[in-house]
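Re: the pair you flagged

First of the two:
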Amino acid sequence: MSTLLSEEKIVPFVEALIVEAGDKIRKRINESTSYEMKKNFADLVTAVDQDLELFLIKELQNRFPSHYYLTEETNPTQTVEKDSNDQFIWVIDPIDGTMNFVHGFNRYAISIALCKGEEIILGFILDVNNNTLYSAIKGAGAFCQGERIQVSNTSSINNSLLALGFSAEQWEQKIDVVSIMTAIAGAARGIRITGSSCLDLADVATGKLDSFFHYGLAPWDMAAGSLLVQEANGICTGMKGEPNFIKSNGILVTNGHLHHPYIELMSRHV
């Protein structure tokens, strides 16, 4: 990885690219109310999502022509495999929080991660409205605007603030929604459902949140953010503690102190 980083100067290139992409979104904010539904009424896509994804792929392909792409709108079936150790794959979400974007709720982000085989080695998240850039390098730390970040030290669920989210299918069909809320109500200090898993992950990495969990996420929803959390000394697993959270049914993210307590709490209710 060090050769890739030093010879091709990949980090400053991607940082400049994601900032440029954020500028493009802000210039098209008036188009946010025009959308299409995908799986159901809670799963939306806009022309801005689609155009931005094509822009990012084109720019990265020009710089790295031998790399592959796993993206929400145009390449959703590309896989991240353990056996493909020499294969570089870019995992991209052009707008994480499309529903927020459509409704004018200013919490959405761009997420770009680079995997080598199954290993996530770089992650970048841009909070579009605040123009705040988060980045992580495998083995070298996590950063917000170039400053190193760290998860919280909260050690009790009673003192914790967490975020959660539901898949579009869960929300429409009310699958586990009531049981999940019942498990957390009265246990944690508070719950936030913000509509952007990438920014929720970033908030765990900076210590603003103590935990985050979500069922039904795709790799582009969590690849960059999970590396951010891990490099900030947090823990990411599946909901039952599975190490390969990218391929699990859900992701549980904590500051580390709260991980097993949350696994135990959720196992009693879901």
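Second of the two:
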Amino acid sequence: MPGSETIAEYYYRYGLGQPATGQVSAYRIEDVTPADSFPSLRRDFYKIKLLCNVQGIFSYANRRIEIREPALIFANPRIPHSWQRLAGRPTGYACLFTEEFVTQPLKSGSVASSPLFRVGGAPVLFPPPAAVDRLSGLFEQLLRELPSAYIHKQEVLRHYVQLLLHESLQLVPALADYPPGTAATRLSVRFLDLLAQQFPLVTPQQVLALKNANEFARHLAVHPNHLNKALKEVTGQTTTAHLAASLVAEAKALLRHSDWSLAEIGACLGFEHASNFNTFFKKQTGHPPHQYRQQGRENS
């Protein structure tokens, strides 16, 4: 099975050169030759896009949304999405960032209900002209900050992303809940919410409450095959693929931002032996965990 597209691979595909940083980047859409379409791929980054002056179809999970006016689009790495341009030459902005850039306070704080993080939410919002102007200003500030050498640049960039998310929340009607239309989508949302609740791990003594597809299915009171079929239909990924992606994301965070031993990290993630954790991590990332940790220290 092919891996997820990275920010660097995305930039290469669109002729954007090298991204400013490995964890977050942004660009003006008019600086890119417009593509009539892009495929439904898994990507390992979040994306916030302000899309103007174009008409097309945005497909997300099992939904198709027609776009004929300025749109604010949210793409989550858990859900494949695709785009088909029908008319116009697009302008606007895009901001891309990885799971590592998204700190836990960001995901659990006041913007946790943003369409960016809620798989069952509205992936497309239609901002009025005044909001388009405000959003454009925030994107321009983010673009100016990306090449800076300021020592706390990551915090500043994270602040601008938070402001973009807060701006989007103001566009969502109060108490709006966008109920998924099918049983498969509702089950997928329940699973993904439950999966997100397993993290972060905050002490070496903490272990995952649910460790495999069977345990998640039992908790959701469905057969494992039914859960797997629903996830495949809605997200294009299996239960096991979702679990593996979350384990890798948490492992990366702990390797980079904690002093826990590899054995402690592996045990917390449900691996009985450090060698099993090492094999899993290398298979998913191409690097053994100790090498990934060392690279992080060298780049910090």
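The two ends are 32 Å apart (CA to CA).

-B.
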